[in-house]
């Protein structure tokens, strides 16, 4: 990521500055929780995507920085809400905001950060961008509700799983790259290419997250291994395992999802590792990576475009 960010280093510094500035509130608790989650770091994938997309098309103004910040705020708000819904205790290697302050303050500060993002979007005075982000946040909410509905449901299909991750994760990646293109005054072909790139990148990113939930290391990932299993989330490695011919493995997975239990985590890790489930999920991520890179053929050949291709490779070849 360090090499990828180098081409937009000054813009990212401006984004980090604006993130801190926009956290101002007359209510100290709002600032305390806001700073806590923002200063935890993170990959800044979505702001990076906005800035790279705009730069690839020759844009060098301030609007991309404002959009990148607003999108990072939307992402941050979803994290605060997700951790409450999932009863998560660890994120990015330290206690979640809800573990520190409780559920109610986390939800309300998430609302504050959401609304601050839209204040920033209003200040941009760009109705198409506003419409894009309004639709995107609506779809994210639908994805979260669908995921909640599917939690504990071992009959969830691969198609239903992909719908969840498209709405919950990939769509904000899509808005990031498409938003960067729109700010740069891209052609319809370029806008569609960057929409495809973001969607494919986000899907690949989430697929690898679901692999790492059974293959990663807690200290590298910054969260506990098996968290998704404890929440009853039927992710692709589990769905693949349940449709294989090994009835014993399928039954263990079904019961774990239905009971929202990680008590048999070691057996499930053994199952998804031995039956090809992780390889299958990884191969699906590679297909999305290839789709993302093909989309870049419609963009100018420059350093920013090349770094976007590297970003697609990084999304698949990572350990955290």
From TrEMBL:
Reaction(s) catalysed (UniProt annotation): 5 isopentenyl diphosphate + (2E,6E)-farnesyl diphosphate = all-trans-octaprenyl diphosphate + 5 diphosphate
InterPro entries on file: Isoprenoid_synthase_dom_sf, Polyprenyl_synt, Polyprenyl_synt_CS
Superkingdom field: Bacteria
Pfam (any one): polyprenyl_synt
Broad enzyme group: transferase
E.C. no: 2.5.1.90
GO terms of molecular function: all-trans-octaprenyl-diphosphate synthase activity; metal ion binding
Transmembrane found in the keyword field: no
Keyword rRNA-binding found: no
GO biological process: isoprenoid biosynthetic process
Keywords annotated in UniProt: Magnesium, Metal-binding, Transferase
Cofactor: Mg(2+)
Record family assignment: Belongs to the FPP/GGPP synthase family.
Task performed by this protein: Supplies octaprenyl diphosphate, the precursor for the side chain of the isoprenoid quinones ubiquinone and menaquinone.
Name this protein carries in UniProt: Octaprenyl diphosphate synthase
Lineage: Bacteria, Pseudomonadati, Pseudomonadota, Gammaproteobacteria, Cellvibrionales
């Amino acid at each position: 990521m360090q090499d990828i960010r180098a081409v937009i280093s000054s813009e990212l510094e401006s984004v980090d500055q604006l993130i801190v500035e926009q956290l101002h509130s007359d209510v100290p608790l709002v600032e305390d929780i806001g700073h806590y989650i923002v200063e935890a770091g993170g990959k800044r994938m979505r702001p990076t995507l906005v800035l790279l997309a705009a730069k690839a098309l020759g844009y060098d103004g301030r609007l991309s920085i404002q959009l990148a910040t607003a999108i990072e705020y939307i992402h941050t708000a979803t994290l605060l809400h997700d951790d409450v819904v999932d009863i998560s205790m660890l994120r990015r290697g330290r206690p979640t905001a809800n573990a520190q302050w409780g559920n109610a303050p986390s939800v309300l500060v998430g609302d504050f950060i959401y609304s601050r993002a839209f204040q920033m979007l209003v200040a941009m005075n760009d109705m198409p961008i506003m419409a894009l982000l309004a639709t995107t946040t609506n779809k994210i909410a639908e994805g979260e509700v669908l995921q909640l509905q599917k939690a504990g449901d071992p009959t969830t299909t691969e198609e239903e799983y992909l719908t969840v991750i498209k709405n919950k994760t990939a769509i904000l990646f899509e808005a990031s790259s498409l938003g960067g293109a729109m700010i740069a005054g891209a052609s319809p072909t370029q806008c569609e290419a960057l929409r495809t790139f973001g969607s494919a990148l986000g899907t690949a990113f989430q697929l690898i997250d679901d692999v790492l939930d059974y293959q990663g290391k807690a200290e590298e990932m910054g969260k506990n291994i098996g968290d998704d299993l404890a929440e009853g989330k039927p992710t692709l490695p589990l769905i693949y395992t349940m449709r294989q011919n090994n009835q014993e493995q399928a039954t263990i997975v079904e019961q774990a999802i239905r009971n929202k239990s990680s008590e048999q985590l070691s057996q499930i890790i053994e199952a998804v590792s031995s039956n090809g489930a992780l390889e299958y999920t990884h191969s699906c991520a590679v297909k999305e990576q290839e789709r993302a890179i093909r989309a870049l053929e419609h963009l100018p050949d420059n350093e920013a475009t090349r770094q976007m291709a590297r970003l697609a490779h990084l999304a698949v070849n990572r350990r955290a």
